Amino acid sequence: MTKPRVLISDKMDPNAAKIFEERGCDVDVITGETPEQLIARIGDYDGLAIRSSTKVTKAILDAAKNLKVIGRAGIGVDNVDIPAASAQGVVVMNTPFGNSITTAEHAIALMFALARQIPEANAQTQAGKWPKNDFMGVEVTGKTLGLIGAGNIGSIVASRALGLRMKVVAFDPFLSPERAVELGIEKVELDDLLARADFITLHTPLTDQTRNILSAENIAKCKKGVRIINCARGGLIDEAALKAALDSGQVAGAALDVFQTEPAKESPLFGTPNFICTPHLGASTNEAQVNVALQVAEQMADYLVNGGVTNALNMPSLSAEEAPKLKPYMALAEQLGSLVGQLTTGSIPRVSIHAEGAAAELNIKPIVAAVLAGFLRVQSDTVNMVNAPFIAKERGIEVREVKTEKAGDYHTLIRVSVKTDAGERSVAGTLFSNAEPRLVELFGIKVEAELAGHMMYIVNEDAPGFIGRIGTLLGEAGINIGTFNLGRRAAGGEAVLLLSVDSPVPANVIAAARDVPGVKRVMALAF
Ligand SMILES: NC(=O)C1=CN([C@@H]2O[C@H](COP(=O)(O)OP(=O)(O)OC[C@H]3O[C@@H](n4cnc5c(N)ncnc54)[C@H](O)[C@@H]3O)[C@@H](O)[C@H]2O)C=CC1
Ligand SMILES: O=C(O)C(=O)COP(=O)(O)O
Question: Per the record's keyword annotation, is Amino-acid biosynthesis included, yes or no (predicted)?
Answer without folding.
Answer: yes
